[in-house]
Write a structure and sequence with these properties.
Strand order of the largest sheet of chain A: 5-6-7-3-8-9
Distance between the termini of chain B: 26 Å
Number of helices of chain B: 12
Shape of chain A: elongated
Shape of chain B: globular
Strand content of chain A: 25-35%
Oligomer: heterodimer
Largest sheet of chain B: none
Distance between the termini of chain A: 55 Å
Helix content of chain A: 25-40%
Number of strands of chain B: 0
Strand content of chain B: under 5%
Chain lengths: ~325, ~280
């Protein structure tokens, strides 16, 4: 474990490679609720000094995966580790791992300061840390107020403050930027980037790519409980050769593509089709089928956003959608 | 810990490596002590507005009931023993509520997401909550003793006192025992049922239902002396010795309505998904 994160300076001891090497390791993790597979064979690793964006639409299994990493949900199979050991075996987890799973999950009857003071007692950190982290997230002036009166954004800040309280080397944050205003989002990006640049490890979930694209080094994309893609941005976009094509007569385009033996990978909401072939091939197929095209370009132009949407199928089930389109084309 | 296929080649001596990783983490930070967790749980019972209200009501009923006995009870009944018992009316009634809310807030207020993330060994939290409840219970009984002494002084000053200053020690002991059972029962019902409302309802409905059953079905009356906690625990709130058969009733009823739910509740809590 080279370059072990040591924002706290406390974890500097060389630990050697455990079976769960990596700051956060998830191995074949699955969770079933009856017949429903909420998380299905998910594996990934987060390394020191990186921010990993854990992306997927609502209900894809992000939160369940994170709860399993933190020992709050028992996995049906598979395992996970933080700093080389299962989370539950960490003697004082908050000193190593800052966790924010749901900002709304806080007793409304306590003040922000009281909430953090309780956590500081368990962590065994100085009470002055409470003041520091409240300052860090810009919540110092509201610290005496009851959490019940906080806006969702303020609760997010409080949650982030609590995650930072124990000076951890790993952060696990579920949707931390939802509810934050633009200034808050900007501030948090800076905070997370800084944290990772000092050697920390961040796992950060979101259902909005744009929220994490600016800060994440790596991405793990999940849909219907399964990992559909993971890697750094360039890796993800590489090998995505293909073409985006759009025609006025969509049925005719489908027919022309089918006759040419080309596969439609994805149908976008605007009627554009992503085809598993180069633009030239698609153009020839369209010409043979006498289809007038409105748009045709190489998939190099397809950004992470479109990859994300095509893989995770935000806004409806893409598989079903394209199947229906294919049926209609026949 | 089985060696994962993906990392298997890299981690030859997995067992020792994991052990050394754990050792390094232990050096970096020790687990919070049991006493510290108890302190935290006690603070959680008392640092919210609702928590303080419940404690305030317990304190107010102590003073109120004591004054009531001093000024309204029949001559001869204004002893320290009666004052002591009367002052604990609110304590007996609300201590289980404090315990129930302390447990169920982890789910109803979703505190558990923080609590169990910081202390993943959930048994430690159960223990801390019980210990915190027991400390509150003992403090409550001690406070009621102080209020009793105050009440007796007030009685002497106003000519409304009977007997001496001493509170019978065996009565103090039985009252402490009653409060201990109440704390365990509260924690047990909270763990078993999860929701504060459901737990409190069930906790108070059980003796009422059993009492009505015993009262209306005469064949069940004898059985109920063994089962109904409302009846079986009454000797703990009465002046005078507790007989052997009364201890037996108490033990049976407590096993059924405290020990058993506690075991079941702990089993549930240790396995329950924290959301």
């Amino acid at each position: 474990m080279v370059g072990r994160a040591s924002t706290s300076g406390r974890c500097a001891a060389e630990a050697g490679d455990g079976t769960l090497d990596g700051m956060i390791t998830v191995e074949n993790l699955s969770k079933r609720y009856g017949d429903h597979r909420a998380v299905d064979d998910v594996s990934f690793t987060c390394e020191p000094g990186t921010v990993t964006g854990f992306l997927g639409p609502n209900g894809a299994g992000k939160s369940t995966t994170m709860r399993m990493i933190c020992g709050l949900t028992e996995p049906s199979s598979g395992r996970s580790g933080v700093l080389g050991v299962p989370y539950r075996t960490l003697p004082n987890p908050g000193r190593h791992v800052g966790v924010l799973l749901d900002a709304a999950a806080r007793h409304p009857g306590r003040s922000g300061r009281e909430t953090l003071t309780l956590a500081a007692m368990v962590l065994g950190v100085e009470r002055s840390r409470v003041r520091e982290v409240l300052d860090d997230v810009g919540l110092a002036s509201a610290a005496h107020r009851r959490v019940g009166g906080y806006s969702f954004g303020m609760r997010q800040r409080l949650g982030i403050a609590q995650a930072l309280l124990g000076e951890p080397s790993v952060l696990i944050l579920d949707e931390p930027s939802s509810g934050l205003d633009p200034e808050g989002i900007h501030r948090m990006r800076g905070l997370l980037r800084d944290f990772a640049d000092r050697g920390g490890t961040v796992l950060l979930s979101s259902h909005l790519l744009l929220e994490v694209e600016a800060v994440a080094d790596r991405f793990v994309m999940i849909a219907h409980g399964r990992v559909v893609a993971q890697g750094v941005k360039d890796e993800l976009l590489r090998g995505r050769s293909g073409a985006l094509v759009r025609a006025e007569d969509r049925t005719a385009l489908h027919r022309a593509l089918a006759e040419a033996g080309l596969t439609v990978r994805q149908t976008n909401a605007d009627g554009g089709l992503v085809v598993d072939a180069g633009p030239a091939e698609v153009g020839r197929a369209a010409a043979r089928g006498d289809v007038a095209l409105v748009e045709l370009r190489g998939a190099d132009d397809l950004g992470l956003e479109e990859l994300f949407l095509s893989l995770t199928g935000s806004g409806g089930d893409p598989a079903d959608g394209s199947e229906t389109e294919k049926e209609a084309a026949r | 810990m089985s060696t994962g296929t993906r990392t298997g080649t890299r981690a030859g001596g997995s067992r020792t490596d994991t052990a050394s990783a754990e050792a390094a983490l232990c050096c970096a930070s020790a687990a919070p002590s049991s006493w510290l967790l108890t302190l935290v749980e006690m603070r959680k019972m008392t640092d919210t507005r609702s928590g303080r209200w419940v404690l305030a009501v317990i304190g107010l009923t102590m003073v109120g009931m004591t004054c009531l006995v001093v000024f309204a009870a029949d001559p001869g009944d204004r002893t320290t023993a009666e004052l002591f018992l009367a002052s604990q009316t609110g304590l007996s009634l609300l201590l289980p509520v404090v315990a129930i809310v302390a447990v169920t807030a982890e789910w109803s207020q979703r505190d558990g997401l923080t609590t169990f993330a910081l202390v993943p060994v959930r048994g430690r939290i159960i223990r801390a909550k019980v210990q915190a409840g027991l400390i509150l219970a003992v403090c409550g009984v001690a406070l009621s003793a102080v209020v009793t002494v105050g009440g007796h002084a007030l009685g002497i000053a106003t000519g409304n006192a009977d007997g001496g200053w001493a509170i019978p020690l065996d009565l103090v002991a039985t009252r402490v025992l009653d409060c201990v059972i109440a704390v365990f029962a509260g924690v047990a019902f909270g763990m078993l049922l999860g929701s504060p409302l459901l737990s409190i309802l069930a906790f108070y409905a059980v003796p009422i239902v059993l009492g009505i059953l015993g009262g209306t079905v005469s064949a069940l009356d004898g059985t109920m002396t063994w089962i109904d906690p409302g009846r079986a625990l009454t000797p703990l709130s009465e002046v005078g010795d507790v007989s052997a058969s009364e201890w037996a009733h108490m033990a049976t009823s407590t096993a059924l309505f405290t020990v058993l739910p506690f075991a079941g509740g702990a089993w549930c809590l240790l396995r329950r998904e924290v959301k």
